[in-house]
């Protein structure tokens, strides 16, 4: 199976380096991506919005033969949901790593402090304890060294959705910061923020207790979870 891996904010394709070997060993073909504006710290981020990231990943899907699995971490979850809306007949499964599908018009995060056209990695103090779980000093230093400013509009644009066949795309949610039961309870209660998740017809949950960046804090475990989620697919 072709697996396209979409990183979250401030990260490029290399953020998946410790995860992809297990997928390759299991017989999958991996395609970790660097999204537009994240090529380097010197890259221009002007005029790059959420739709541009969705367009870019859609183009990668179009360039592959057969069905594709999309894996999206954090803000990458909104991107892969947008691709499922555009190519519902090409996506075998969406895997949301500590993320989920946003509802129509919702921004990924319009509260992050921006500097012009970009959002630099904020100080660690802005994140909660659960977000930083298992991300020790060395891992934080490595993250900060590799971090690339995020195009501001990717975080602040509202997503545009149009094809309800996106609900036919099977999905797996890997919950890290908080237990998946929180999502199950929210769906049961009909809370609006999980409105898209609630309408996915084939939905699985997996718990991987750690912080928001399991590709750094528990890469081996994340790889194993991904392999299991895609078994027999």
Can you walk me through this structure?
With 233 residues, the chain is α/β, with parallel strands linked by helices. The chain has a single domain, classed as Rossmann fold (3-Layer(aba) Sandwich), CATH 3.40.50.1820. It is 32% helix and 15% strand. It has 9 helices and 8 strands. The chain has a 6-stranded parallel beta sheet, with helices on both faces. Helix 1 links the parallel strand 1 and strand 2. Helix 2 crosses helix 3. The protein is globular. The termini are close together. The mean pLDDT is 97.
CATH architecture assignment name: 3-Layer(aba) Sandwich
Strand sequence of the main sheet, in spatial order? Answer: 2-1-3-4-7-8
Number of helices in the DSSP assignment: 9
User: What coarse outline follows from CA principal-axis ratios?
Assistant: globular
- Report the uncertain regions: none
Cα separation of the termini: 8 Å
* Rg (C-alpha, Å): 16 Å
Mean pLDDT over all positions: 97
Tell me the strand percentage band: 15-25%
Number of domains: 1
CATH classification, class level: Alpha Beta
Number of strands: 8
Question: What is the CATH topology descriptor?
Answer: Rossmann fold
The SSE string, one letter per element, is EHEHEHEEHEHEHHEHH
CATH superfamily: Alpha/Beta hydrolase fold, catalytic domain
